[in-house]
Specification:
globular; 196 residues; alpha/beta
Length: 196
Amino acid sequence: MESLLEQTYANFEVVVIDDGSSDGTLDMLRVWEQKDVRVRVVAIKHQGIIPALNAGLEVCRASLVARMDADDKAHPERLARQVEALESDPGLAVCASLVEGFPEDQVREGFQIYIDWLNRLVSHEAITREIFIESPIAHPSVAFRKRWVEQVGGYKEHGWPEDYDLWLRLYLAGARFAKVPEILLYWREHERRLTR
């Protein structure tokens, strides 16, 4: 939360979806909501990642939506750089960024190999050339045009990763992708990470 509220780009809101937490998270979120008018907390009954993502998408008021997980960190220029990229190219549907895994001493070899591959795919041509190999975009690093994601039906459950499924559907609908060629997201490694 701190990394979002310290962004150099200030004209945004933070929509936080609490997916039925039972560990005091909602109380902490309500404190953030009271401290900063840009924070809006939406508490829903626990349903899992896909309903939570769609609930967040539904209540976002802006035409540009940046996605992030609660335990990752944003570079202070993240939103400024992604908004700049999207505003300078009206045909761009999804703008991600390069990422860096952390904590450094816990980033396993497989995750680092995946990150290195992701960070080599910056242009639309590179991203789409390898889109059928694996998800070429780190989900928590994206900013996208809300209308594009709504046009393809939002996030869906098909038994595989919801982000990869979304990129594939956007690709088939003719969406253009790009990445800001800078590390703008610090992506937390987890012991429970099953893939990548």
